[in-house]
């Protein structure tokens, strides 16, 4: 099993999940430039990471990989406790991070490069407000919990990734104490630390 990643991207979530599962895997660094080359485009025509290869089978898209890992390794309980209800709750919060939070960061990742700088500044300021609202919601969910769904799941590494981005981009997270405590717990987790170190992020 091989995971293709670029440091600091959402592929870090899959890397952490693999560390938590504990099965052997290879982490293959691919640079942004290499992702545009034919060799990698043959793996993922979108030129994006993550990509997971098992034998001659290729799986792309972060949420698909996270769900595959949870389902392939039910003993890890990263997809819930085995009941349909807990699985649905995991996917509820995973969907929030993937569909609502993650796309907002595109305004820093080049999607508004065609705009004038003043317009870019306005869009980014408005996006910071939207992110703050979403992070407030997640902060409330974390009240009294160590993990987003109550137990460790595939939601947590993905949330950790977007929180890293938010902190780097100076999104206002003031007063979101449950979120900060979550971030600190994740940074101290051995599997998270191992993934960060492997990607040169620690």
Q: How is the main sheet built? A: 4 strands, mixed
From the N-terminal CA to the C-terminal CA, the straight-line distance is: 24 Å
Class from helix and strand fractions: alpha+beta
Please, what is the average pLDDT? 95
| Oligomerization category of the chains in this entry | single chain
Q: Give the helix proportion (percent range).
A: 40-55%
Topology as H/E string?
EHEHEEHHHHHH
Q: Count of DSSP E strands?
A: 4
Q: Which spans of ≥5 residues are poorly predicted at pLDDT below 50?
A: none
CATH top level label of the largest domain? Mainly Alpha
Shape: globular
Integer-rounded radius of gyration: 17 Å
Number of domains: 2
Q: Record the strand order, biggest sheet.
A: 2-1-3-4
For the record, the CATH architecture of the largest domain stands as: Up-down Bundle
CATH topology of the largest domain: the name is: Glutathione S-transferase Yfyf (Class Pi), Chain A, domain 2
Total number of helical segments?
Answer: 8
Layout of strands and helices, then pairs:
Elements: E1 2-5, H1 11-21, E2 26-29, H2 38-41, E3 51-54, E4 57-60, H3 62-72, H4 84-101, H5 117-141, H6 155-168, H7 177-188, H8 190-198
Parallel strand pairs: 1-2
Antiparallel strand pairs: 1-3, 3-4
Features:
8% strand; globular; Glutathione S-transferase Yfyf (Class Pi), Chain A, domain 2; Glutaredoxin; 202 residues; 2 domains; 51% helix; alpha+beta
Describe the structure.
The structure is a single chain. The chain has 8 helices and 4 strands; from the N terminus they run E-H-E-H-E-E-H-H-H-H-H-H. Helix 1 packs parallel to helix 3, helix 1 crosses helix 6 (155-168) and helix 4 runs parallel beside helix 6 (155-168). It has 2 domains: 2-76 and 193-198, Glutaredoxin; 84-189, Glutathione S-transferase Yfyf (Class Pi), Chain A, domain 2 (Up-down Bundle). The protein is globular, with a radius of gyration of 17 Å. Helix 1 (11-21) links the parallel strand 1 and strand 2. With 202 residues, the chain is of the alpha+beta class.
């Amino acid at each position: 099993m091989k995971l293709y990643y670029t440091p600091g991207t959402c592929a870090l979530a899959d890397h952490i999940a693999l560390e938590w599962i504990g099965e052997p895997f290879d982490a293959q660094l691919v640079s942004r430039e290499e992702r545009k080359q034919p060799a990698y485009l043959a793996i993922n025509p979108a030129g994006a990471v993550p990509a997971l290869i098992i034998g001659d089978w290729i799986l792309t898209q972060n949420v698909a990989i996270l769900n595959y890992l949870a389902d392939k390794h039910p003993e890890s309980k990263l997809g819930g406790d085995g009941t349909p209800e807990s699985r649905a709750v995991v996917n509820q919060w995973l969907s929030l991070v993937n569909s609502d939070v993650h796309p907002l960061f595109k305004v820093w990742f080049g999607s508004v490069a065609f705009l004038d700088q003043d317009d870019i500044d306005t869009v980014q300021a408005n996006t910071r407000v939207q992110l703050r609202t979403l992070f407030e919601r997640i902060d409330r969910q974390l009240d009294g919990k160590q993990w987003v769904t109550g137990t460790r799941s595939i939601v947590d590494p993905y949330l950790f990734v977007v929180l890293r981005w938010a902190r780097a981009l100076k999104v206002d997270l003031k007063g979101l104490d449950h979120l900060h405590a979550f971030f600190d717990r994740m940074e101290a987790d051995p599997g998270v630390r191992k993934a960060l170190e492997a990607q040169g992020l620690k």
